[in-house]
Design goal:
Elements lengths: L21 H5 L1 H16 L4 E3 L9 E4 L11 E10 L4 E8 L2 E11 L1 E7 L5 E7 H14 L9 E5 L2 E2 L1
Antiparallel strand pairs: 1-2, 2-3, 3-6, 4-5, 5-8, 6-7, 8-9
Length: 162
């Protein structure tokens, strides 16, 4: 089921999510939620999505398989954290399903390492570069109550400067 996307301003988008527990992972409703989150990302043509964007203040995000490195399926990250693997950062344009029609340039690390759990609760560690790394940093920001507009410069709406 495609879920409603919350848009800024909404306090849930600014609230750090809680860690997902082992009990959450074994709950069949949690698995249904994750499937709905995937459908929502796909239905809205997103490259990634985070649980707070649909009103669930928990640390789960998904990266579309087309952008998730060698993954054969959408990458589900539970309680993810990242650390920089290079000092290089680069500017790139970003937008967000929760900040519709607004775009801007955000400086992100070029290469990162991600530590998370999968849906089975097993630890995973992934390296990400370039656009994949940008998406992960953007989605993990959501899990911490941060929107891209908090970091962006040169914001604009479609063809108009703000």
């Amino acid at each position: 089921m495609v879920l409603n996307i919350l848009t800024d301003p909404n306090p849930i988008l600014r609230t750090p999510g809680r860690e997902v527990t082992a009990a959450d992972l074994s709950d069949k409703n949690f698995k249904i939620f994750v499937n709905d989150l995937k459908e929502t990302m796909r239905g809205r043509d997103g490259v990634g999505i985070a649980a707070p964007q649909v009103g669930q203040s928990i640390k789960v995000c998904i990266i579309a398989k087309e952008y998730a490195g060698d993954n054969m399926d959408d990458l589900i990250l539970v309680n993810p954290v990242w650390e920089k693997k290079s000092i290089k950062r680069f500017w790139g344009e970003e937008g967000c399903l929760s900040v519709p029609e607004i775009f801007g340039k955000v400086k992100r690390y070029k290469k990162i390492s991600i530590s998370a759990m999968n849906l089975s609760g097993k630890p995973i560690k992934i390296e990400a570069e370039d656009f994949f790394a940008r998406i992960v940093q953007h989605e993990i920001d959501h899990l911490n109550g941060i929107l891209f507009i908090d970091k962006a410069k040169d914001l604009y709406r479609e063809d108009k400067k703000l």
